[in-house]
Amino acid sequence: MKTILLLAHGNLAKSMKMTAEMLFGQVPDITIDFLDLEEHTGVAPFRKKLTCKINHFRENNMIVLTDLRGGTPFNEAYALLLELGLASSVPLLYGMNIPLLISLLFLEGGFGQDDIHKCIEEAKENIGMLKM
C-alpha cells in the first residue's frame, strides 16, 4: 500500500485530492490523504493533526507533497519527519501540482528517488504558456 499525503495552505490540498479522484476515481493500492493549514488554524493544531497522520501511515510506502518550500506545511512536515526518524525514508516534495500528483499516482513500485525525479520532470513539462 502506498500513501500520498498532501499538505498545503488554504484548501489546496483538499482540492488536489478531490481533483485527482474526479479524474481517476480511487486508484488501487494508493491512499491520498490531505491536511490544509487554514487561515484561522494555528501551527500547534496543524502539527498535532500532521503527527497523527504521519504516524497512521508510517508503515505504508509514503510520500509527502507540499505546496511551497519554506511554508508552514513544508516546515512542519520536515521537522516531524526528522523528529520521528523518517526523513531518510519518506520523500518530502514541494511545489505540488496536478501533473505531479498524477505521475505519482501511476508510478509503479515504490517512491524511489530516480522515479520521483522522473515524475518531477514530467510535471515540469506540463507547465507552459500557449503562444497565439
Describe it.
The structure is a single chain. This protein has 132 residues and is α/β, with parallel strands linked by helices. The protein is 45% helix and 19% strand. The chain is built from five helices and four strands, in the order βαβαβαβαα. It has a four-stranded parallel sheet with strand order 2-1-3-4, sandwiched between helices. Strand 3 (61-66), helix 3 (72-83) and strand 4 (92-94) form a beta-alpha-beta unit. The longest helix is centred in the middle third of the chain and has 15 residues, at 43-57. The mean pLDDT is 95.
Assembly level: single chain
Given this structure, which CATH class is correct?
Alpha Beta
User: How many strand units?
Assistant: 4
Mean pLDDT: 95
Q: What separation lies between the terminal Cα atoms?
A: 44 Å
Strand content: 15-25%
Q: Specify the overall morphology.
A: globular
User: Strands of the largest sheet, in order across it?
Assistant: 2-1-3-4
Q: What is the number of domains?
A: 1
